[in-house]
């Protein structure tokens, strides 16, 4: 019997082992590409499973409680790589959650977010492998849960989810990438800089997918995108956008000139 994509995404989401989760997502994407997975867009799915599945470590604490470590130490560099791996682990969960949670969207919507989940799993695997070469494993350092907290707040609205996770929180990754890359290059971690180049390339595509579906949803409900985004950001207490902004990456990801002009005035 063939698996169904949205049910399979939920099963991956509930997996608690980070490495097994990443591998399962990559296999699911491969099976989908081969035509071995069915899709039921209209099924309303409920679950008794605890989501997202996550390992016992890292311990999740408030962002303000995270230790700041010097980048010129091995542990400081490893802590930064770990933080990036944690972001990618959360991003896997976010993409999987969109697939199973929100019914009655076009088939391409689910295919797009499976592509995102697959690439996030690839990014996590690259970062985790590099972390291990430094003598650490995912879970060694504490982490925070801000990304998933926004997913919780937007679990009842696909419009709010798309507006405030890929277009807000993940887009901040585009802005942060140049500075992070520079820090890692400065301490001579060329492997990490190469991984960040891959992540930035793919994340531009992920934010572009978010922009596409946000604009599509606005069009379906006859909503003006810019004012709708601002209303949602206020309603759901989204993080305030602060410079510097990676304008070129945001432009490539499909933000309009009106949106970029607004950011430029902040």
Description:
- By secondary structure, this protein is mainly α.
- It is built from 10 helices and 2 strands, in the order E-H-H-E-H-H-H-H-H-H-H-H.
- It has helices spanning 5-14, 18-33, 74-101, 107-133, 146-153, 158-186, 190-220, 225-235, 247-252, 257-264; strands spanning 3-4, 37-38.
- Strands 1-2 form a two-stranded parallel ribbon.
- The longest helix is centred in the C-terminal third of the chain and has 31 residues, at 190-220.
- The model has no long low-confidence stretch (mean pLDDT 96).
Helix content: 55-70%
- Our estimate of the beta-strand percent is under 5%
In the sheet with the most strands, the strands line up as 1-2
If you compute it from the alpha carbons, what radius of gyration comes out, rounded to the nearest whole angstrom? 18 Å
Question: What is this entry, summarized?
Answer:
With 266 residues, this protein is mostly helical. The chain has helices at 5-14, 18-33, 74-101, 107-133, 146-153, 158-186, 190-220, 225-235, 247-252, 257-264; strands at residues 3-4, 37-38.
